[in-house]
Amino acid sequence: MCWCEGWFGWFGIWFRMRSQATVCGQLLRQIDLKNHLFGQGLISTRTISGSLSGSKGQKKNARLEALRAQEVAPLSDFLTDSFGRFHDYLRISLTERCNLRCTYCMPEDGVPLTERSHLLTTDEVIRLAGLFSAAGVTKVRLTGGEPLVRADLADIIAGLKTVAGIRSVAITTNGVVLARRLAALQAAGLDALNISLDTLVPAKFELISRRRGFHRVWQGIQTALAAGYDPVKLNCVVMRGVNDEELEDFATLAETYRLDVRFIEYMPFDGNRWNDRKMVPYGEMVERLRRRWPDLERIADRPNDTSKAYRAPGWVGQVGFITSMSEHFCGTCNRLRLTADGNLKVCLFGNSEVSLRDALRQGSSDEELMTIVGAAVGRKKKQHAGMLDLAAMKNRPMILIGAGRRGRPLLRPPAAAARRAVAVRQYSDDASDRPAGTAAGEQRRRSGETLHSDYWDQYRAYYGGRGGGPPEPAAPAPARPAEQPKPTTDRPPAPAPAPSAGRLTHTDSAGRATMVDVSEKPVSRRRAAASGVVLLGPEAFALVKANAVAKGDVLSVAQLAGVMAAKRTAELVPLCHPLPLGAVHVRLALCPERHAVEVRAEVICTGQTGAEMEALTAVAGAALTVYDMCKAVSKAIQITDVRLEHKSGGKSGEYRRDDA
To answer: What CATH number should be reported for the domain whose range is 89-400?
Structure first.
């Protein structure tokens, strides 16, 4: 009995000493980590002192209370890798589905969709977000696929906003249906949003995304700006020979709007036929922009920013460059990714994943789940491979950084006629990928020039034989001599000569209706004003003046109708280009001498074509609304004198009606 008591006594002493050593080791590791973060300027001395005070023998409950009182979330070894990087930013993919088919994101032969039962449910998303938040995550970004295809997106955002510790919930979207859904998302608590847009040319948008919808994306951007998001981040993947000639056009948006335009270096993913010659490096992009804005200067980035920010004097917004290929930012990476099927990716370019969904559905406790997370984070490498090595590595397609590989193939490029199928092929250096009859383009490719000409060959092939599209040149343009220097604007040649004075611009040589090609025009500030008159007659005028019309306030409703009509001009007038409208002003005034309502509209935009049609459509829409609301009083109401009063901007310069 004495021997047993002695043995148990020594064992108890040893166990207490070992436990104290473990606690001290954990405390020292936490102090070292906090000292590292303090050196990086990420936490304050108050945080460090809170940890040191624990070493003086304070009770566990007192330490917990001190941590709760701090402004920063408690640090967790689970989210700290072996290089001291603490991960407080979680990106959650909600779906693999998308309403676009962008060439750099989705392989041409489609992707396999994961069965719905294998995707994370809304409750599972909220629970996992809560676990990460308890460990120190403060920001969550919802991605896809396209997150707006989730009907319950507003519910997910509202659920995440209830999770303690999550300070910001953001989304990345292609913007196609954003205008329609943003109000509900903002009401649910959406804090920030990124919108992807790779071109400002509607026809090129269709070629890149294999879908139409440019004007809806731009409407979504305008809606986000009007809702007060500041800034709205605009993501643009820059591809040589596809959209790199639009760098200055995108930067002009930052000059005018509260936008953070972020140029992203073209990155390799499965199926996107990445080629280093298509990648435009960060340094080259900055050099190009400085030709236009010599005073473009580097500005301070926030901690852990992936984008290198720049601004020129007088700009409302800014531009940035995401340099994953030419200058990686792995050393400050604080991001983790959760795919739609519940796999944790600790690196965007890494091919190793661990399933949290399976552990979750097998009944693992929170502690067991975080142990899995901690093991995955601990194995994160110091940096990803070089760009040429990345191109050879196996990884998910971009759209499936948020989906599994099980299931049946559902997402396919659109089935269409052979001519159109050729036109939407991936822009590559493979001659088999280009339409037949582009010998000049092949010659230019062999001479080492950029691929702009090949894009325009595809552009013409796409529109050939259809009612719309740019008019064909009257005669083939002569080939440019090899020794002639390339134009400094780096733009393709104009597809057609300027129309003669006696020729209509919206018909081709065969007299068929066609849309004018404005893609070669520079982006500039445009302004247009129009006016019109509604002759009401004495009785209807008196009711409008007294605001006694049975249908309501005529002038207010007509004013709103005019604004809405201007925004819908491209949908109402078949050959009219959709424009990024900056402002629409509609004013209605009573004219007692004529028993009339005078309507005036002014439209301001930054674009490649004028805003005259938008101003005229605003006047017509407002006038028709006045007629509709008063027609029960009199059928003799007349709408008259709808005309352009003034326009400015563009190649044709300024116009003002003589008797205005």
So the answer is: 3.20.20.70
